[in-house]
Structure formats: C-alpha cells, structure tokens
Specification:
There is one protein chain. The protein is mainly α. The chain has five helices and no strands. Helix 1 packs across helix 3. The chain is elongated. The mean pLDDT is 78.
Length: 135
C-alpha cells in the first residue's frame, strides 16, 4: 500500500458518522481505514457487506460510548500539578546529573551520593503517587 501523506477533513451527519463508525468497529479497523476501503482504495481489502443493520447500530452505539469516555477532562488541580511536576522534573534531572558528575570526580563521598539519589527517588515516587490521587 502507498504511504498515506494527505489528509481530508469533512463533516458528516451524525447518523452517517455513527453508521460508518459502527461498520469500522465491527470490522476491527479504524474509521479512516474503513472510509478508505469504502472509497475503493487500491490494495484495500473488500468490505464485508453481510453485517446486519442491527449489529452496525449496536457497534455504533458502543463506539460512541467509548468516544465519550475518552473525552474526560482532567481537573484544573491535576493540570496544575502536571505543569508543576514537569517543571520540577527538569530540576530533579539536573540535580541527579550534577551529583553523578561530582561523585565520578571524587568531590562527594559515596554516602552523600547515595543519600542524594535516595532523596531524588523519594521525590519522584511522591510526585507519581500524588498525581494518581488527584481527580
């Protein structure tokens, strides 16, 4: 199959979108792949037309529920924590890098180096645990 390099955006009535999504779900392919097959893309597997309308409608309803579930937005608190943790992680990496350089140069003892790494690891675990508890 040729490399897919171009995209096309279009709007569809809800009933047509739901039907296409249901058909794609039943076939186990993405909506884009299904539409390419429907358009008769060279090299695409033919569409099976033996699926009942009832099965298509059930699959469309299930796919719509999945799509709704994916749209859950993080709370403002979680988004703020993620922002702060992303900023903090850069500093943590810098500290770890500096500790490693100083240890390899013999500037700090193994005990100090080990203590720094333990503290950084503890901070990382804490940050991951806090994020999971938000929302």
């Amino acid at each position: 199959m040729a490399k897919l390099t171009e995209s096309v955006a279009l709007r569809l009535p809800k009933d047509i979108y739901d039907r296409l999504l249901g058909e794609a779900t039943l076939q186990g392919v993405s909506l884009g792949q299904h539409i390419r097959q429907r358009l008769g893309e060279v090299g695409a597997a033919p569409i099976q037309s033996t699926v009942s309308l009832e099965k298509i409608e059930r699959a469309a309803a299930a796919a719509a529920q999945i799509k709704k579930a994916k749209k859950i937005k993080s709370s403002d608190e979680k988004q703020r924590l993620i922002y702060l943790f992303n900023k903090t992680s850069n500093n943590v990496n810098q500290l770890a890098h500096r500790a490693n350089l100083d240890y390899n140069a013999g500037t700090i003892s193994e005990a100090t180096y080990s203590n720094i790494l333990d503290q950084l690891e503890l901070m990382a675990r804490y940050m991951k645990a806090v994020i999971k508890d938000v929302d």
